[in-house]
Write a structure and sequence with these properties.
two-stranded antiparallel ribbon, mainly alpha
Length: 212
């Protein structure tokens, strides 16, 4: 696997990417399998202690670094590195809650629709689309990544941003690439979520309803 770029992503990009991956993993089994394999293939962090430096120096033919002085008393093992902190999911859960409140998105995705007719599914999808679109337009400002119309011929010069444009089809050689725009992509220019009140539990996407 090629070296991965560890440059931190901005918060808005992480939120958008988590939101996209969340639904693609739920709805696209092939994408979920590829994401799982990519996660499993990530290399472990490279050791950077004195012994690792000595090993790398000997392998490269460079003069070895001096051995570290050993204390007379038994050397204590260094404490294990703390695991990385889990990413904050409060904002993503809040957005999912808005989509559920306005469009019943979670209800629709959790429903087994295998036995429903196409007409019933189409009617339900129309209602979900209308509500989710209202929630999205009310709290996010989106813009297409590419301004050309889909189906237009485009040229990607050397140095294009691979985070903005994904190459599909028969990919070979190097830039410039010439192809047909199949999807314009989306970029989140703004995101405005309601300020949670004290004691708010973001894990509750929708409260249960009891009629009296």
């Amino acid at each position: 696997m090629a070296d991965l770029d560890d440059t931190p992503l901005p918060w808005s990009t992480r939120l958008w990417f988590a939101f996209v991956c969340f639904f693609r993993v739920l709805l696209d089994p092939q994408f979920a399998a590829r994401a799982w394999r990519a996660r499993a293939a990530l290399p472990p962090a490279e050791a950077a202690g004195p012994q690792a430096q000595l090993d790398r120096a000997r392998e490269g033919g460079a003069p070895p670094l001096p051995e570290p002085e050993r204390a007379a008393e038994p050397e204590e093992k260094a404490p294990a590195a703390a695991p990385p902190a889990a990413p904050a999911v409060g904002s993503a859960l809040q957005l999912l809650s808005l989509l559920q409140r306005e469009g019943r998105l979670v209800d629709f995705l959790e429903q087994d629709i295998a036995s429903f007719s196409d007409a019933d599914i189409g009617a339900a999808a129309r209602m979900v689309h209308e509500g989710c679109r209202k929630a999205l337009l009310g709290h996010a400002k989106l813009a297409p990544v590419r301004r050309e119309e889909e189906g237009a011929k485009v040229t990607l010069e050397a140095g294009y941003n691979p985070a903005e444009v994904k190459l599909i089809g028969n990919v070979s050689g190097s830039a410039p690439y010439r192809g047909v725009l199949r999807h314009r992509g989306w970029r989140a220019d703004e995101l405005s979520l309601p300020m949670p009140i004290a004691g708010h539990d973001a894990s509750i996407i929708a409260p249960a309803e009891v009629e009296l």
